[in-house]
C-alpha cells in the first residue's frame, strides 16, 4: 500500500480547508432519513448548508433561551414573523438554485470534453464545492443522470489518485443532495467500480472515500450493493481503518441487511466470520451495528437448517450469550439486547447444533438472571414494542421441544433424545428456570406473559422424568401456584393450568393429591365444572392481544416510513410460535367449544377418587378445625351480652386457638384460611355485626360502640402479648404476614398500560375546551328513549377529555339539555360559572370532532403542551366531605381557584365570616346529581372518569384491555334526568365527626376510632363477597388497631383500675410498642402501582385503573412512602401545572418517570427583607399562594438568588413561626430557651414533643379578641407556607407534634392523644378519668353513697385538696365552665372537669386555629390530598431528614471535582471533621452549603444537584483562606488545608460567620 505523502499535501493545500481528504467525514449532513441506525449520526456530521437553513432557522428560534415552542394561540405574532423569514429564505434558495443549475451544466460539458488533468481537477473541485452547498432544488434528475457516467468513468481512472478521490467524493455529495441519484450511479456500475477500489487498496484516502460513497448508495440501492459484493468489499480490510471509518463500513452492511431478499443466493454468508470477529471489538456503536447485521442474517436464513448450522460454526452463539450475561463489558441498548435473544430463538428453533450449544453453555443461568431482574412494566407492553421477557419466554419454549406439538419436524425428536440422554442438563435447566417463572406469574404479569410461563412449565414437566421432577418441585409450592392461576378468566390459561395439574398427577398422584386438596386446586377444578364459572370462560370471552413484533424486524424497519400495517388482534393461541402452527395466522381461536369444562371434568374424575368427590369429606383437618372456630365465633355473636366477662373470655379462648393453629407445625394454606370463613366471622364479631353492611344500615349506638371497643381490647391483648417468652415475633406479626401472603396469592389487580405509540397533544371540547397532552376520546351524548323533559344533542360528536369526571360532563351538558333553559351554574363558592369553562354552543364541539376518523387524526399537530389541568372530582366514598368540597360539575381546581380569589380580597374578620357563611351555604345546597349517565346500558358510577368506566366494562368481559381500539372507537353515552336522590354520592355520612360534647359520656371519646372504621368502603371494584375483601378489611382493622394500640391499652388499664384489679396509679403506665408500619406494606401492590404510574397516561389519577385510587384512599398503608409521594404529586400537584404555560420542558414535555416536579412550573422571583421575614412571607403568599408558580427568593441588598436563598427563606420563616410570645403554640408542655435569631433577639420555642396550638377561649374581651384574630391570621399564613413548600418541593425546619399532624390529616383527637404533646397533662387527665371510671363502677356495685371511700383515691389526696378550679391550667383567662357548682373541682364534678379540659385542649380551644391553617393551605391545593400519609410520613415529606446522617453512604452521594478525588487528603480530613461535628454544627453546615438545615426526604442521595466539593485555589496560603459555597448548586469550594485541625477551625468559623447573607464568593 503506497503512502500519498507530499503529493497529497500539495493537493490539499490547493483545496478549501473543508474539502481535504482527511476531513471527508465532516463534510455533508445526511439529508435522507439517516437516523435509522445509530451509525449515521457519527458517520455524517452536519454542517451549514442551504438545504437545512430553513430548519436551522426554526430550531434556533425554538431553542434560544430555553423557551419551548408555544401554541399558535399564544404566539401568533412570532408565527407571522417566522413565516416571513421562511418566505424570504425560499426566494434566496430559488435564486441560488438557478445559479447552481448553470454551474452544473458548465461542469458537465467541460468534463465530457477530453481536457487535461489539471482542468479535470479544477472542475471536480468546483463540482464538490457546488454540491456541498447546494440544495435538492438545485439538482434535477437529468443533471444527476448526466453526471453519473462521467463520475463513474473518472472513478475508474487509475492514472491519477486525485481524480479518483474527487470523483468518488462528488458521488458521495451527489447522493447526499439528491438521494435518487443513487439509481443513476448504480445503472452506470458505480458500485462495482467502488468495490474494485476496496478489494485492492492502493491509497487509504481513496478507500475511505469509497466507503463513504457506498454507505450513501446502500441506503437507496441495498439490493444492487448486495449483488455487487459490497459486503465483503467493505469488510475486507476493515482492520486497517480508524474506528470512525469502521463504523461507516459496518453501517453500509446494516443498510444492505435491511433489504435482504427472501430467496435467491446468499453471498452475505461469506461475511459471517468477519462479523462474528467484529463482535469482540471495543467500540459499542460498532458492535451494536454488527449485532443488527447478524440478527437480520439469521432471520433471512431461519428456514434453512444448514445455513443456521453454518452460523453456529463461527462462535455466534458464544458471542451472543456473552452479551446477554449481566457482567458483559460492552453495554448494548435494550432493543439490541432483545434482538440477540430473538437471534438465539431462531437458531435454536432450526438448528440442533445451536440447541446443543446453548445447553452446553448453561443458557439457563443467563436467562435466570434476565428473568430475576425484569421490570413489571416490560411485561405489559402490548403496543408493538418488543420486550425482554417475551423474547426470553420464546427462547425457553424453543429450548423445550415436545413432539406432541408438531409431528412433522424430525429435529424435534433429535432434540428430545439429546435431553433424554443427558437428564442432568434438563434438571439444571428446570432448577434455574422454574422458580423464576412462578415468581413472574405471581408478581402480576400480564396475560400473555402468564400464558408463556405456563407453556414453559408445561413442557418442562412433560419432558422431565419422575426423579428429575422431584428435585425441581421440592422447593416450589406448585399446588399454591396452580390454585392462584385458576383465578384467571382466560380459557387458554386455564387449559394450560389443567394440563400442568394433570401431568403432575400422572407422575406423582400419591405425593400431590393431598397438597392439591389443601391448597384448593381440587376446589378450583370443581368450580370450573359449575354453570356459573363455565359462563365466565366461554370462548367468546377470549382476550385478543397485540403481540410484540420480533426484535429484529423492529430494529431494521425503516424509521422514516410509517408502518402501513395496522394493529392486528390475535388470539393467545398464536402468542408463542413454537406452541402453535404458524400457518393459520388469521387470529381465530383454535380451542374447541367446552374444552375447559371437558378437561376439568377429565382431571377431576380420573385422578380424584370417588370418596374425595364429596366436598364435605374432602376437607383437610386444618380446614375442619378452622370452620369449627368460625362457627364458634358466629355462635358467640348471637349470644346475649348479659355476661360480658364470660363473652370476652370465650372470644379470647377461640382466637387463642386460631393463633396457635397459625403458629403451628402444620402450615395453613390460603385456601384453608379463606374457605373456612374464619376471616369473615372474625370481622363480623369484631364489628358487632356492622361488617359488610351498607352505609345507611350502620347503627352507631353507644352499646354497639362499647361492644366493639371491648372486643378490640381483648383482641389487642391477645395479639400484643407473646405466648412464648423466647419468641421475638408477636402474634399480630404472624397474622399480618399470613394475611399479606394470602393477599399476594389472591389479588389480581390489573396493571393497564396505554397503547399509544406516540403521545401528541389533543383538543377536548368536553368538558372545558382545552388542550391535553394525551389522546381524547370521541363520544356522542344521546338522550334516553324514555326521557322527555330534557333536550337532545345526539347529532353532535364530541372530543372528550377521558380523565374528566361525570360531574364535569354534567356541568357541560346540563345548560344545553335542560328544558328550563338554565344558563348559569353556581360553583361551590357561590361565584357564577366560569365563562371559559362553559361553552355556550355546541358548534365548537362539532368543530373539535370533525377530523376524528382515525386514531392518529384525533391529535392535532400543535406544539407540544404541558398536561392541562386534569379534573380530580373523584369523590372517595371512604372520606368525609369537607367544607371545600366542590358541588357536582365543578372541579376541585376551579373551586379552590374561586376560593382563593375571594380570600385574597378578604382582609377583615367580617369579610372572612361572610365568606365562610357563603361557603357553608353553598355546600348545604342540593348536591345530588342532575343527570345520570349510561354506557352500553350500564349506569356509570359518579366516582369514575370516562376512561376508568370504559376500562371497568372491558375488564368484566376480558382479562386484558385490547390495543388502540380503545382510543379509536366512538362511544355513545346515554343520559337521563336524575330522580330525587338517586345516585347521590356526596351526602354526609351519618357517622360524620362532631365536636366533643360538654359532658362526654363513657364511650363518646372512642367514637372516632370504632364508629368510623366499619362504615368506610374499600375498593369499590371489589365485590364484598370476594375473599380479597375480607383479607384487606382485616388488614385495615389490624393497622387501625396498631395505630391506636396506646389508646386501647390505656383504656384497658383504666377499666382494670375501675374494677379494682389495679390500685396503684404508678403502675398505670402503658409500655407497648406498635408493630413497624412497614409490616403492613404490600410489596406486590406497591410495585404494581409504581409501574402503573410510569405509564404514559399517568398524568392524572383519573388515568389509572380504579383500584389504584380506591386502595390508595382506603388502605394507603399498603404502599411505600416513595410510591405515595409519586401518587400525591399526580393527585395534588400535577393538576396545577396545566393552568399556566410552562416556560421550559424536556423534549417529551413530561419527565419520563412521570414525577412532574415543581421544576415544571414557571418561576417567579420575590424580594425579601431579612428584618421583616414574616411580613415578606405574608406579602409573598397573598400574591402567589393561589398562583401556580415556583417562587425564588432574593434578599434586599444581597446578590444571591435561586435555590439556596429560597431554602434559607423557608428556614427563616419556620423559625419565625416558632418564636415564643406569638400566642400560637402551647408553651407549658416544653421549654423556652433564648437564642439569637438572624433578625432580632427573641426566644425560639423548643418543645421536645413538638408544637401544638395553644387553646383560646371562644368568648373574650376586645383586646384579647384582637390578639386572637392575629393568631388566626398567622395560622392561615402558616397553612399557605406549608402548602407552598410542599408544592415547590422545599424543606421546612418545623417540629410539629404528632397530634397536630393528625389534625392536618383530618383525624380526630381524643384524651389519649394529649400525652403525645403534653405528657404531664395527658397522664394527669387519664388518671382523673380512671378515678371517674372507678367511681362509676363503685356506684354501680355499692350504690351512690360512697363519697367518703372515693375521696382518698387520688394518690391519698382528696380531689378538693388539689385546689383545682374550672380554668385551663396556665391560662387563667380561659374559663371552662361558669356554673355555680363548677367553681372548685371535686369528686362530684371531676368527670365534667375531665371532659371540659379535654374539649378545650384538643377541640373547641384550637378549632379556629386549625381551620385557619386548613383554609390557608387550601389556597395552594386541597389539603385532603395529604390524607394518604401517616403523621410520620407527613413530617418526613414536609421537613425532610430530621437528624439522621448516614455517613457510610456519604461518599456514594458526594461528587468530587476540580482537583479532588475521594482519596484526596483534604477530602478524608473533611469527612472526619463532619463526622465529629455535634448536632447543631451539622445543621449549621447543611444550611451553609445548601441553604436548609435539613436534608430532603431520602437524605444526601436526594440532593439535587448533588453535593459537590472542589479545590479552591487562592494566591495566598491555603491556611489563610476560608471555604466558600454556591448554595444554588450545593457547591463547596474547599482550600487544601495543611491539617485536619486547621480545616475544622476554618470550616466552623465560615459556618458560623457566613450565615445570614448571600454575596459573591
Q: Span between N and C termini?
A: 61 Å
| Beta-strand proportion | 5-15%
Helix- and strand-based class? mainly alpha
Task: Using the CA coordinates, give the radius of gyration.
Answer: 39 Å
Largest sheet: 5 strands, mixed
If you average the pLDDT, what whole number results? Answer: 75
Spatial ordering of strands, largest sheet: 6-5-9-7-8
**Secondary structure: number of strands:** 20
Oligomer: single chain
Query: DSSP helix count?
Result: 63
Low-confidence segments, given as residue ranges, are 1-78, 376-386, 558-567, 579-585, 821-925, 981-1008, 1139-1159, 1230-1241
Work out the helicity level.
40-55%
**Shape summary:** globular
Model description:
With 1561 residues, this protein is mainly alpha-helical. It is built from 63 helices and 20 strands. The strands form seven sheets. The protein has a five-stranded mixed β-sheet. A four-stranded mixed β-sheet has the order 17-18-20-19, covered by helices on one side. A three-stranded mixed β-sheet has the order 10-11-12, covered by helices on one side. A hairpin with a 2-residue loop joins strand 15 (1367-1368) and strand 16. Helix 10 (204-220) runs parallel beside helix 13, helix 23 (423-442) runs parallel beside helix 25 (466-473) and helix 33 runs antiparallel to helix 34.
